[in-house]
């Protein structure tokens, strides 16, 4: 058997031209084009609403704070607790996707998210609001992981998968922009409650479409898989405590010298060490198997992504505050400032999906790393009365180019490199790096800003942007030197490659 042929199934042999064709045509799981459109709408919509509820709440927060009389020491929690819970529970939901199938976890996550988003709009005080925001976080933790699993299992490696993944990544900045836009409208003309009601309407639509258009994937459940309860308890507790300390450290009564900050931070790292020990030496079926890091280049890629996603979080958070607080833009004008991210994301998705199989991934990752650096650098050097087109506009374009290209390339690489049995783990790993990178580096940036508050808001925000610039440079260096990815062409799946290798080994043994 030549390298251009592979055993796809019992008695079926595909040539390289047939593999190319399979990478372009509609998967058999979709009985019609409309079913595929509905499937894509569900997956893209799920990413959209997740970003909607993350981004816009920062713009809405001043209005919520005044209405619900949120005390200063609790002001950041309605915004941060959502991402905190979502990031902490991604790995357990990756295992649940393997246990129950991608569709069940995906639809369940959407329904849960819808319920608590609607209840959140009826919050009578800030404690109820924080509680609802925390419970909201379980929804994206479930469906973002299972969404990656569904996408990777439905589509073979090739241009069609590249295009769908590109659109999936593009709807992050689109959802981010729409979240800011609706938050601005609600803050200025309506009530903050309508931000939750609008989001709930969008969620309801996505949920209904997903129920009827996502094909059943019960056969994707991994046989004999078990829940790693010890790993789940330690990793969730560790991440909650560490991110809590990072988020709260700058706002505690005595800063990082506050006893409960020190205790939670140290205890969190102790539990994280326990998680690593359990996964490596005790767990029969670890949440994060060692084999996943056997993929060449995955370790440096994970490290680089951790820094780069952190840079994106710093940019999104502090750019919105800089525009509102320093440039004195209204909520609606702030949304308009972010328009290039929305438009640029859609353009990049369309073009990127058509060229990912033509250009080497390494070149694209270097370009995206450069864009990460430029987006924060432009705000670090922005003058007092900046020209929008010279500083803000290119920064927004660079930010969307950085996140879109990186997210798409690395998603395709990771999911294509892993077998079907590890697709739930792949989705959990991808989104864990995203959420935890943003939370971790936002905590460090917040610490830097609070320690330089005596310089004034403008200069302290610039400290955050300079910190982001350093992180971006480190990320692009690691990605350039440690990761080598070729073109995202049509090819065999990881399972088919493993089967082919097994058959070739048996053939050589028999000879």
Automatic annotation (TrEMBL):
| Subcellular localization | Membrane
- Pfam families found in the cross-reference section: MFS_1
Q: Which organism is it from?
A: Lophiostoma macrostomum CBS 122681
Keywords assigned by UniProt?
Membrane, Transmembrane, Transmembrane helix
Q: Which PROSITE patterns match?
A: MFS
This entry carries the following GO cellular component terms, namely: membrane
Name one molecular function that GO assigns to this entry. Answer: transmembrane transporter activity
The record's section on Gene3D superfamilies has: MFS general substrate transporter like domains, Multidrug resistance protein D
Q: Which residues cross the membrane?
A: 33-54, 74-93, 100-119, 125-151, 163-190, 196-215, 227-247, 259-282, 303-323, 335-356, 363-382, 388-409, 421-443, 463-483
Q: Which residues form the Major facilitator superfamily (MFS) profile domain?
A: 39-487
Its domain of life? Eukaryota
- Name of the protein described by the UniProt record: MFS general substrate transporter
Membrane topology term: Multi-pass membrane protein
